Amino acid sequence: MGNEQSQMSDVEVDDTVTVVSDFWSQHGATINGSESGSSVRVTLFAGELLVEEPFWRDQQLTPLEKFSKNIKIYRHPSIVKYITSWQKSSKYYLAVEEVSPLAHLIQSHLSPMEVCLGLYSILKAIDFLHSKASVSHNNVSVASIMVNKEGNWKLGGMEYLCPYNQLNPDYVRKTEKWRGGHKIPDGAESLKDKSKLDLVGFCATALDLLKNSSDPNASRESFQNYCTKVLEDPNHLQTTTLQNLLDHPYFKHPFITIHSFLIELPLKSDPEKSEFFKNLEKELRALDDEELVAGQLGGLLVSRLVLLNQDAQECVLPYIMVPRKGTNDAIFSLEVFKTYIAPKLLRIFPVRDAQIRRRLLDYLPQCFDCFSRDDLQFKILPELLVGIKDLDDELVCATLHTLAALVPVLGAHVVISGERAKLFNDGRPNSRAAAPINGAELGQVLRSADVEGAKGTLGERPDLPERPRPDGEEGETSTEDVEQSGEESADNWEDWGEGEGAAPPTDVNRPKRFLDITELDIKAQPSEEPEVDFFADMEPEIRSSRKFLTEKTVGSSSSMFSVKNEHQGDEEGWDDDWA
To answer: Is 520 a domain residue?
Structure first.
């Protein structure tokens, strides 16, 4: 109980109520992850734990509790996904994937293909309940259909689901006033085929959704007529099965076929998968609506089973994992890829699977412009930095290639971080060609420079090229070296002007004689400030307790340490016994 209360404290419920029914209210909510720090958007159902209706008292479960129990047991891609549930005070809470009621989206424009795919998904879920689980839904209607954020239709409203052995006319009559319902033809309750109740509910729902359809496809009209016969003719109802509806030409569109195969991919054999993926790229290009393909099939095309399939890696992934730019032959345009495919890649990138990560790294540098700067810096970059620490050398190599491609996008200061410094210099020669200068021109330059010799500077000449930096130079010239070089240059010019009217030599063409080092006049400039002796106070001071008088005599020992003691007879302690 304490765990349930603490879980409630991590849920932020939206103020707006989406749906209010007889037994619960539907809200949008956010579940905050305490460990990872991430948050997940969900749909939250809240209902009372006490229901006064006699039928539900006999069931020993409230409608919301039964709904929660059934979606937890019966899992299918087209059934609403269970996340968690808990009790608090007198209420029961159920959290499922983020969905919206289909009734809210009917007013918006739904393309004919979206309606066709949605009906097929719901029909597949109903067929799963009957053929695999031997249970009847008993509440198929527009109100029981949800749509997730990717546009996929999901079957909900499973509070009236029951096993075949409990489905009888009495159960149908007791639940009829709450079920979203269409009238059952006379005698349908007592038919031996337990699927008839859901068959009637599906046909009635399909007619409601297709009555205003603008689809000119002839198969759509044929399907409407087929559903009308099921509802009006008991004999036709008795001979019709769910499989007959699934085999109708209305559901044989290539788009439906691709979607169905991707949904059932785990059940297919290897030869079937190989043939499917080898032809998939051409079939996707043949579909007209690129945005519908990316929206409805995008999540399936980048699923785990597709990314790990060898045939898909060779024949499909190169065309769906990158946007269409320049001369490449990708299927999705840049805008469609950015809207539908990039968010899915961003969601699966943190998966710690080496093969999945390597497939993503193969194509990630080609779609950096499909992610925001924040996504690259705070979601993708941290995962790349984790990847370079793995023991797999190939994974590390691919990760480093991706990091290198990320540097021009985010900058090295973001990708590398830490302290950086300029450790390399540009040793290229100056690109501007140096103009040749003859000796006469150089002499004229030197004579003009002598006029300014008193200032110790050489005037700049715009037509003289800048001295190029030597190849292989390392390090940078400090300011002190530049100043010292300027002072030495000034001294050299002063030497030329010792005699009044002296001029610099003009015979510049004569080769210069190199002097011997002994002929160089090296002047050491005296220091203006006395050198500070930092060890002066550390010099030992030796003091004697007695004074000795020394006297220098002629003929005495030449040693400067000879000492004459005037009190030689009075000293004690230094006799021969001590020696």
So the answer is: no
pLDDT one-digit tens code per residue, 243-300: 999 999 999 999 999 999 998 898 899 999 999 999 999 999 999 889 989 998 999 9
Cα–Cα distance for residue pair 121/256, rounded to 1 Å: 9
Reduced to 3 states (helix: H, G, I; strand: E, B; else coil), residue 403 is helix
Q: Indicate whether 136 and 185 sit together in one domain.
A: yes
Q: Is residue 410 part of a domain?
A: yes
Inside any domain, residue 455: no
What pLDDT digit, counting tens, does each position of 60-89 carry? Answer: 888 899 999 999 999 999 999 999 999 988
Cα-based distances in Å from 106 to 123, 206, 210, 223, 308: 19, 13, 11, 20, 37
The confidence score (pLDDT) of residue 482 equals 44
pLDDT of residue 196: 87
Q: Which residues make Cβ contacts (< 8 Å) with residue 263, sequence separation at least 6?
A: 77, 78, 124, 300
Please state, in angstroms and rounded to a whole number, the distance separating the CA atoms of residues 81 and 122. Answer: 14
Over 80: is that where the pLDDT of 311 sits? Answer: yes
Contacts 24+ apart (CB under 8 A), 330-338: 331/281, 331/284, 331/285, 331/290, 331/293, 332/290, 332/293, 332/294, 333/290, 334/369, 334/370, 336/290, 336/291, 336/294, 337/294, 337/367, 337/370, 338/370
